[in-house]
Amino acid sequence: MTDIRLLPDDDDEMIGGLRSLYAAPSGDSYWNELESRIMARVADVELGWWTELDRWVRPAIAAAAVLLLAAGVAMFRAHQTEGDIAVDNMLSSPSVPVSTAIRPSLQDDREARIRYLFGCSAQEPSCSAQNNKR
Amino acid sequence: MDTGVVSTAAAATYEPSFGMTSSSDARADERALVIAAQRGSSEAFAALVRLHQRRAYAVCRAIVLTHEDAEDAVQEGFLHAFKALDRFLPDQPFGAWLFRIMANASLDLVRRRKVRDADELPETIPMAFRDPGESDELRRRLNMALTKLTDRQRSVIVLHDVEGFTHGEIGEMLGIPEGTARSDLHHARAALRRMLKDVRSDL
Lengths: 134, 203
What we know:
The complex is a heterodimer of chains A (134) and B (203).
Chain A: H1 11-21, H2 28-47, H3 49-92, H4 98-101, H5 109-118, H6 125-133
Chain B: H1 2-13, H2 24-38, H3 42-63, H4 67-84, H5 94-117, H6 137-148, H7 151-162, H8 167-174, H9 178-202
Helix pairs in contact in B: 1-2, 1-3, 2-3, 3-4, 3-5, 3-7, 4-5, 5-8, 6-9, 7-9, 8-9
C-alpha cells in the first residue's frame, strides 16, 4: 500500500485533512450532555454564597457612602454649634469679674521677684510688712 | 419574564449557521436571550449555550491540543461569560464577545498545561479527538505535523482553514494584529506542506 495518495499535494487536500482532524463530535446526545455540564457549573455559581454577596456589594458600598456623608455632615454641624455657643456665651454673659480677669500690674521688677520667692500676694498685709522690713 | 420565555422558545428551534447568521430575526432573538439572561433567566442562558456551544468548541479546539482540553475550555469559557454577562452590551454581537472569552479560556488552559508538563515528559504525543473506528494515515501524520507548529500558527490555520474565521476575527480572538494572523497563516501552511512532503520523501 502506498501512502502517497494520503499525503496532501495541495492546500485543498491539506485543508480536507485538517477538517477531518478537527471535526467536532457529531450527535445531539454529546451536545446535550455538554450543555448539561455547562449549566450544572453555572448553577453552582448561581447558588454560591459569593453570588449573594456579590449582589449586595454595590448596595452596601452605596449605603456606606451615604452613612459616611451623613456622619460627616452631623459632625460638621455639631462642631459649628459648639463654636456658636462658645462665642455667644463669651459675648453675652461674662461669668468672670473683670477685675480678676485683668492681672494686677506690678510696681517694679524687684517687688515681683520678692513676691515670687516668698509666694505671697500683694493683698496680704503680713507679706507687705515682711517686705517693708527687708 | 416574558422576553426570556419567548426567546427561549425561539432558541429551541433556532439553529445558527456557522458563519454567523445574517438573519435579523435570529439576531433579535439572540439579543432578547442575552437581555433575559442578564435579568437572571437561566433558561435564556441555556438557550445561548445551546446556540453557541458547537462554534465555541471549534474555537477552543483550534487552540488547545486535545478534545478533552477543548471540552474543559468550553465549560470554563461559558462560566466566564456567565459571570461577565452584566458587562456585555446587548447591541454588540454576542458571538464575537463569547468567542474572545473562549479563546482566552483556551489560551489560559494551554499556559497551565505548559507549566504542568514542564516537569513531566509526555509519554505520548497528544492526539486529536477521533470517532471510534475512524483512523487513517493522513490524519495521524497531519496531527504529528501540527504539533511541530507553534501554538499560534496551529490556532490560526485551524481557525481560518477549518472554521472559516476571517483574519480580523482571528486577530481579535487571539489578541494579535490582523497582519500577524495573516502572516501566521502563510507560515503555518508552508510549514505543513514542507513537513508532509518530508514524510513522503522518507517513505
